[in-house]
Specification:
This protein is α/β, with parallel strands linked by helices. It has helices at residues 2-20, 22-42, 64-68, 72-84, 130-139, 159-166, 177-184, and strands at residues 89-94, 105-109, 114-120, 148-153, 173-175. The radius of gyration is 23 Å and the shape is elongated. It starts with a helix and ends in a 9-residue tail after the last helix.
Length: 193
Amino acid sequence: MGQVAVGAGAFIGVVAVVRAHPVVCGFLAALVLGGVVVVHRLRGGRPGGTGADGGVRAGFTHSIAAYQHMSGSQFEHAIADLARRDPGVRMATVSGGANDRALDVLVQLTDGRRIAIQCKRFAAGNRVGAPVVYAVNGTYRAYHRCDTALIVTTSDFTQDARRANAELDQPLRLVDGRALGRWSAGGRPPWYP
C-alpha cells in the first residue's frame, strides 16, 4: 500500500510540474525522445537480443575469427543483421539451406533493388572457387529476380574465381575476409559503389 501511495504522489507531483512549466517540460520530453531515437539508430534500428537467429545480436560487430567460429546458419543470420544496419535496407531475410539455389540472404533496398547474397564461412586456407561464382551468376537474375549479387566469405577467392567473375557481363561483388572486416567495423555496405 505504501508503494502505491508513493507512486501516486510522484505522479501528482509530475502533473503539477508539467502544468506549471509546460514549455520546459515539452522541451525536455523532446530531448529524451531524441535520445531514444539516436540510441535506437545506433543499435541498428532493430531490437537486440537472441532468438531464432541462432544467438546473433543485431548491430553487434564481429571479428573475422568470430564469424569463422559460427555455424553456417549463424553466419547467414549475422550477414543479414549486418545488412540491416544500413538505413537503405528495407529488409534482409535469410533463405539459405538445402536447395537454396545460391541464395543465403535476400536484401531489399528502399529504392526497390534486390540483392542476392551467397555466404561462405570458410577457414583462412579454404578459398572460394569459380564454381561458386558460376552458380550465383546463373541464378541471381533469372531465378531470384535480383539486380545484383554478392558472395561474402570469411576467407578469400581463388584466382580462377576472380578471373571468372571479371569475365562476366555483370560481375558479382566479391567480399573477402578483409572487406567483410571493414564492413563489419562500420564501413560502407558492398552494394554501394
